[in-house]
Write a structure and sequence with these properties.
The protein is of the alpha+beta class. The chain has one helix and four strands, in the order αββββ.
Length: 77
Amino acid sequence: MRIAILLIASAVFVFGAPVDEAAAQFKKRNREPPRSPTPIACTQGGCAPIPAGCRIETGFSQEGMLSGYDSVVCPAR
């Protein structure tokens, strides 16, 4: 009877450890989609990638309060 218990315990130990390790590695995978290298600005017209050479700044209302939207600033051509 002791031999059967030892065999079962050793089988659980030998085959149980790799399953736990594999499950832990599976959980560590990144599930997020890759990010776009182009910055995206959310203006009053909607969210869109900004053109090359432009930058994103914080948008303000005419009263000087934060508008909650981004402003896209491009250099003059």
